[in-house]
Amino acid sequence: MQCVIMTGMSGAGKTVALKTMEDLGYYCVDNMPVLLIPKFMEILQEGRHKKAAIVVDIRNADQLTVLRRLLEDESRDDSEMKILFLDASDRTLVKRFKETRRAHPLSADGHVEDGIAKEREALAWLKERADYVLDTSKMLTRDLRQQLEQIFSENKSFRNLYVTVLSFGYKYGIPQDADMVFDVRFLPNPYYVEELRSKTGLMQEVRDYVMQNEDSHEFMHRLNGLLDFLIPRFIEEGKNQLIIAFGCTGGKHRSVTVAEAVYEHLKKDADYGLKIEHSCISR
């Protein structure tokens, strides 16, 4: 019997996650009282359902101590219980609550930020105990679904890190949430080649032009080596979200080319979440 306790911050995507788990064949229950979980597991074990996903979050705040005891006792039975913790940055959560116009469960006075702070404190031990931590700050719905499918359906090895490879244009500003920023304006610029100006780094002829000289290849070699060194150490440190940004003047040629090359390099052996995003390519 496999049971996934789904928890995390309000607004981090538990509703989407629960629907995804249901599609993957899990018997799903939202906001189940913690005291009922042991009996619920017994009933499922006697039936045909061998996989369950249960959402337990701050709405069950008065029973979190009971959940702690349950998780401590779980090793005594035959079930396999995993904890999935969904998180997001405070700024992202505030934005989502304002967009949906819903009140935070712990913000009776209407201040969403205060509710988020209280919730983080209450759930800190659960995040530390979690088997999987997904930071959904930069994830679209399809990204979250893909991550869950890889973990719970394809049984891929999983590390609690989600990497976004991002291209941008300096003329539009540096992304404020980037963890690492690389300026690639020293590379050959296709903008000054008339037949390439209207194209982007998604096209092979543009990539060939950007990567035409020895400096380009040396840069990529050193860059890939740096990322291969750093990413495992970010994982060991417990980082959940990493945004690697590459910028050129307009965000269409050089930055896109380098971002695509880095993405392809990381994708070969990635045991963490990974996506690519071009923020200025259509501007």
What this model shows, in words?
- With 283 residues, this protein is an alpha/beta fold.
- It has 2 domains: 151 residues, P-loop containing nucleotide triphosphate hydrolases (Rossmann fold), CATH 3.40.50.300; 117 residues, no CATH class.
- It has 10 helices and 9 strands.
- The strands form 2 sheets. Strands 2-3-1-4-5 form a 5-stranded parallel beta sheet, with helices on both faces. It has a 4-stranded parallel beta sheet with strand order 7-8-6-9, with helices on one face.
- Helix 4 crosses helix 5 and helix 9 packs across helix 10.
- The model has no long low-confidence stretch (mean pLDDT 90).
Helix content: 40-55%
Whole-Å distance between the termini?
A: 51 Å
Q: Note the beta-strand portion.
A: 15-25%
Assign the CATH architecture of the largest domain.
3-Layer(aba) Sandwich
**At the third CATH level, what is the topology name of the largest domain?**
Rossmann fold
* Biggest sheet overview: 5 strands, parallel
The CATH class name of the largest domain reads: Alpha Beta
Q: Which ranges are low-confidence, i.e. pLDDT below 50, for 5 or more consecutive residues?
A: none
Q: Please tell me the overall pLDDT.
A: 90
Gyration radius from CA atoms, angstroms: 22 Å
* Estimated structural class: alpha/beta
The overall strand count is: 9
